[in-house]
Design a protein that fits this description.
The protein contains four helices and four strands; from the N terminus they run H-E-H-E-H-E-H-E. The chain is α/β, with parallel strands linked by helices.
Length: 113
């Protein structure tokens, strides 16, 4: 989170993505500094929604990227756990699903694009 805040100071008009996630007590900083958090757990969405509510954020005003675990067992929601997280971006939520991301499925293998 600290790097995201520093990046915001250096690049005030840039899109700043915090890929390390957002955890307890960090939601207010995400909103205050206009950062985009990467999330993969219900608790992270709870943190952001609570901070957004306290800040009086409008529906759909807080961008979020959702990370999906595609098999490397790093951070990310499993494909089986995706549906409940997606449901959190419904009407009336301050959160807006802006993007979806993954880590490479097999980082040591070359893939054709």
């Amino acid at each position: 989170m600290e790097e995201g805040v520093a990046a915001r100071r250096l690049c005030p008009e840039s899109h700043v993505l915090v890929i390390g996630g957002v955890f307890a007590g960090q939601g207010a900083a995400v909103i205050e500094h206009r950062l985009t958090a990467v999330v993969w757990e219900q608790d992270q969405l709870d943190e952001l929604e609570g901070a957004a509510r306290r800040a009086g954020a409008e529906a759909g005003s807080i961008p979020v990227h959702l990370e999906i675990d595609t098999g490397m067992s790093r951070q990310g929601v499993s494909p089986d756990g995706l549906t409940p997280l997606l449901a959190r971006f419904g009407p009336g939520s301050a959160l807006r699903l802006e993007g979806v991301m993954t880590h490479l499925f097999a980082a040591d293998e070359a893939t054709a694009v």
